Amino acid sequence: MQAIGRWGEDTAVKYLETLGDTILARNVHTPQGELDMIASRNQLLVFIEVKTRTSHPFAFPEGSVTPRKQVYMLSAAEMYPDHNPECYDTW
To answer: Distance between CA 2 and CA 74 in Å, rounded?
Structure first.
C-alpha cells in the first residue's frame, strides 16, 4: 500500500507544480499527526492531505478525512509556521 500512496503523492506534487505551487515539505510528522504536503501558493501556506484510491471509483476522498483528522490537521497547520519560520523565506 505504501507504493500506491507514494504514487498518489508524487502525482499530486506534479499537479500542484503545474498550478504554480511550490512544495515546501512532504510527510511532515507533528505531535498532532502527519501532514502529507505543505505548499506555498500566492504567499499562502497550503496544507494538503492526499488520498489515493485503488477501488470504489465513486467514493469521494474528502469523505475519508474524518472530523478527528481535520482537527489534527488544523492543529498541526497552526503550529507549523512557529516551528518552521523558514517557510516564510519562500515568498
So the answer is: 24
Integer-rounded Cα radius of gyration of the chain: 14
How far apart (Å, rounded) are the C-alpha atoms in residues 50 and 35? 9
Task: Give the model confidence (pLDDT) of 38-87 as tens digits.
Answer: 999 988 899 999 988 777 666 777 777 889 888 999 998 888 888 888 77
User: Cα–Cα distance between 53 and 74 in angstroms, integer?
Assistant: 23
Cβ pair 23, 16 in contact under 8 A: yes
CATH number of 2-90: 3.40.1350.10
Domain boundaries, the chain: 2-90
Cell digits of residue 10: 508524487
- For residues 89 and 50, the model is more confident at 50
pTM for this entry: 0.81
